[in-house]
Specification:
Layout lengths: L2 H12 L1 H8 L13 E2 L7 E2 L4 E2 L1 H14 L3 E7 L5 E5 H17 L7 E5 L4 H12 L3 E4 L6 H11 L3 E5 L1 E4 L2 E4 H11 L6 E5 L13 E3 H4 L11 E2 L3 E7 L7 E6 L1 H13 L8 E4 L6 H13 L3 E6 L10 H9 L1 E6 L1 H10 L16 E4 L6 H11 L3 E3 L11 E2 L16 E2 L4 E5 L12 E6 L14 H9 L5 E10 L5 E6 L3 E4 L2 E4 H9 L4 E11 L3 E10 L7 H15 L8 E5 L12 H9 L14 H12 L4
Parallel strand pairs: 4-17, 6-7, 6-8, 8-11, 11-12, 16-17, 16-18, 18-19, 19-20, 30-31
Antiparallel strand pairs: 1-2, 3-13, 4-5, 9-10, 14-15, 21-22, 23-24, 24-25, 25-26, 27-28, 29-30
Helix pairs in contact: 1-2, 3-4, 3-5, 3-10, 4-5, 6-7, 9-10, 12-13
The structure holds coenzyme A and adenosine monophosphate (AMP).
Adenosine monophosphate binds next to strand 25 and strand 26.
Length: 631
């Protein structure tokens, strides 16, 4: 039944060298690599270590040189401002070369870091590609993060330049980015001497003389910079993601493996090629945005679509269908939460009937497990394959997917199908033994990881080994738990750490606990993710107050909510918190977060054998019922 997939998958594991050498032919190299897999520093593996290339050349210039300059590279559609624009490959190449010239003139050199703090505007794509063009390393920070989070990233990446926009536009408000940047620069210890600012009409920002430069006056007239050849193993970007503490992890992506893997994925996973329209409805601040708004579709010579807006409310739940019709979208990639939002507003799919969406051949979902209800609704309403695929910031592309360009496999509810070629996925017990089919354990990938996966963490090679490679020597620990069934289908069931997924956004409850613990009235706290019909999960905080605190609890809760918003950002969606007398703990003092989560979700709770005092569970249940509006 899955003969073609089986053969391709097996070949990728039996002969990774041959498999990826063949895939590397899809990329234009300035120096063709003779080595494919470099095992000399195992367990840290590198791909194409003696190859050289330029990522921007592969995304843009080579298509122009091949006579495809008139094809559309990028479509920009903002439901927030009404702007709609197409950029051909030739136009995008020129604009990027000028931006690269401008940032080079501002002092950026190969290997320098450039921090990009921008909303969903075309200039963000140009800025990323311009960095790649001159061998600079970009680090994009999502706009929904607070100044404090931005400052952490500035201090870790130590950028020579920040490229920002004056503001982002959310349905409810204009988010002024520049003051957040200003605050972050004031908090951070690293000095940034140059800022390149895109001024948006919705809120033009004040500029600081000498430091700030206006994109519109600098970029269009800047000299064009050529592509600089870099080593395949040189970093292309750093993307920070949540770890188990408040200190984010700087996931590093290299140039060579990334280009090879993403180019391969466009044809074999998504079945999209030259001239076809691919739309990842995500944000450039997330890995999905990096891989599938910016790089992969352009490597493939396809048309990528960048949408500033929401699935609902901009103006209605027909927004996605409007875009599919207007631009002949072949493949849409988004998070299940977006479909849950659409389904909630338009359960019967009436708005879908207003648009011709027959260009669509598949819907891909990721960011969280696709629940069967959402899967069935999307399958039924769209009448195309709906592919749940599983991946992480660290992996850069899908670990498991239904590879439509290899062979479409039957779908199983709740499963992202089977491991993607290159990913030797296993289920391990706590001692690292392989578990038989159907048994729950840690999902781990036998090393080496395929090209495109992260080779290290920025400034933290030891943390890389410790966080990912040490639990199960010889394997990458994904941090997800699940099973693989008798037919080889994977099921990703939960995280094994304290990371939660809020509307497809990855957040650390540990990071939120650090914020709550800093409140002067809080003695101890626990934050956990509880089920939410729309966002999948939302955080809930329980705090115990220091003795002697007599202030109004509602006031304290309000301050806690505000401080998570101020210090982590609105994207954390931290709105639920309550004061409790004490927290349930084991006799050794460990907070029983999983038990609290079950109580909050209304799941059956077996009283843990190690619990300090079982009577506490009914106290906690009462508080949860109140805060969740159940009493
Ligand atoms: N800049 C500033 N603020 C931002 C932001 C940005 N780029 N993106 C989101 N925010 C803010 C929102 O305004 C909101 O603030 P609020 O609390 O004042 O309302 C908060 O962060 C949470 O935003 P969001 O997660 O978008 O929730 P929402 O309730 O506004 O919308 C959905 C819900 C389901 C419509 C929305 O989450 C969505 O479209 N999700 C798709 C997920 C996605 O693309 N995931 C990427 C992985 S594929
Ligand atoms: P991020 O690094 O933000 O992409 O988040 C990665 C995490 O999101 C994974 O480790 C999973 O916990 C979760 N995730 C992403 N895609 C899926 C999926 N298709 N099914 C289940 N979980 C997913």
């Amino acid at each position: 039944m899955s003969k073609i997939y089986d053969a391709v998958y097996q070949q990728s594991l039996d002969d990774p060298d041959g498999f990826w050498r063949e895939a590397a032919r899809g990329i234009s190299w300035s120096k063709t690599p003779s080595t494919v897999l470099d095992e000399s520093n195992a367990p840290v593996y590198r791909w194409f270590s003696d190859g050289e290339l330029n990522t921007c050349f592969n995304a843009l210039d080579r298509h122009v040189r091949a006579g495809r300059g008139e094809l559309t590279a990028l479509i920009y559609d903002s439901a927030m401002t009404g702007e709609q624009r197409r950029y051909s490959y030739a136009e995008l190449t020129e604009l990027t070369a000028r931006c690269a010239g401008a940032i080079r003139d501002l002092g950026v050199r190969k290997g320098d870091r450039v921090l990009i703090y921008m909303p969903m505007i075309a200039e963000a794509v140009v800025a990323m590609l311009a960095c790649a063009r001159i061998g600079a390393v970009h680090s994009v920070v999502f706009g929904g993060f607070a100044a404090n989070e931005l400052a952490k990233r500035i201090d870790d990446a130590t950028p020579r330049l920040v490229i920002a926009a004056s503001c982002g536009i959310e349905p409810s408000r204009v988010v002024q980015y520049q003051p957040l940047l200003e605050e972050a620069l004031a908090i951070s210890t690293h000095e940034v001497s140059k800022v390149l600012m895109v001024q948006r009409d919705a809120w033009p920002a004040p500029m600081r003389e000498g430091r700030d430069h206006d994109w519109a006056s600098l970029v269009p007239s800047a000299p064009m910079a050529d592509c600089v050849s870099v080593a395949a193993t040189d970093p292309l970007y750093i993307l920070y993601t949540s770890g188990t503490t408040g200190q984010p992890k700087g996931v590093v992506r290299d140039n060579g493996g990334h280009a090879v893997a993403l180019h391969w994925s466009m044809k074999h996973i998504y079945d999209v090629g030259e001239g076809e329209v691919f739309w990842a409805a995500s944000d450039v601040g997330w890995v999905v945005g990096h891989s599938y708004i910016v790089y992969a579709p352009l490597f493939a010579g396809a048309t990528t679509l960048m949408y500033e807006g929401k699935p609902v409310g901009t103006p209605d739940a027909g927004a996605f269908w409007r875009i599919i019709e207007q631009y002949n979208v072949k493949v849409l990639f988004t998070a299940p939460t977006a479909f849950r939002a659409i389904k909630k507003e338009d359960p019967k799919g009436d708005l879908l009937l207003k648009y011709a969406t027959d260009s669509l051949s598949a819907l891909f979902l990721a960011g969280e497990r696709t629940d069967p209800d959402t899967l069935h609704w999307a399958q039924q309403k769209l009448g195309v394959p709906v592919v749940d695929h599983w991946w992480q910031t660290e992996t850069g592309w899908a670990i498991c997917a239904n590879c439509l360009g290899v062979e479409e496999l039957p779908v199983k509810d709740g499963s992202p199908t089977k491991p993607t070629p290159g990913w030797n996925l296993c289920v391990l017990d706590d001692e690292g033994n392989s578990l038989p089919a159907g048994q729950l354990g840690s999902l781990a990938v036998k090393l080496p990881l395929p090209p495109g996966a992260f080779p290290t963490l920025w400034n933290a090679p030891d943390r890389f080994i410790e966080s990912y490679l040490s639990a199960f020597p010889g394997y990458y620990n994904t941090g997800d738990a699940g099973i693989i069934d008798e037919e080889g289908y994977a099921f990703v069931l939960s995280r094994t750490d304290d990371i939660i997924n809020v509307a497809g956004h990855r957040l650390s409850t540990g990071g939120m606990e650090e914020v709550l613990a800093d409140h002067p009235d809080v003695a101890e706290c626990a934050v956990l993710g509880i089920a939410d019909a729309m966002k999948g999960e939302v955080p809930l905080g329980l705090v115990v107050l220091s003795s002697g605190v007599t202030r109004d609890h509602a006031e304290i809760v309000k301050e806690l909510v505000q401080s998570v918003r101020d210090r982590i950002g609105p994207v954390a969606a931290f709105k639920l918190a309550a004061v409790v007398e004490r927290l349930p703990k084991t006799r050794s003092g460990k907070i029983l977060r999983a038990t609290i989560r079950k109580l909050a979700n209304g799941e059956p709770v077996a009283v843990p054998a190690t619990i300090d005092d079982p009577a506490i569970l009914s106290e906690i249940q009462q508080v949860l019922d109140t805060v969740l509006g159940r009493s």
